[in-house]
Prior knowledge:
- This protein is 22% helix and 23% strand.
- The protein is α/β, with parallel strands linked by helices.
- It has one domain (2-94): Rossmann fold (3-Layer(aba) Sandwich).
- Strands 1-5-2-3-4 form a five-stranded mixed beta sheet, covered by helices on one side.
- The longest helix is centred in the middle third of the chain and has 13 residues, at 49-61.
- It is globular.
Amino acid sequence: MRAAGVARTFRERTAGGRWDRPQLHRLLDQLHPKDVVVVWKLDRLSRLLQDLLHLMDRIAHAGAGLRSLAEAAVIPGASGDGASPASSASAADGAD
Length: 96
């Protein structure tokens, strides 16, 4: 994550399919426009497509973007500018 320019890390110790994840909710509550949520893999946010889409919508609604390192995916924020994680970044990391 450091190599990706992540400035702040939110580390969750529960499975990616659960909603009772305090660090994930903390991350979502603290998002600002132009932030970029950096995850190792998209399934770290959720393993259920419907939940992943809901989280992506919440991130976009905050004006933030999403970047997956393993899938080489970058989803720009609501502004569409694809803000760089070096300028402002957060990370959600799940451990199995």
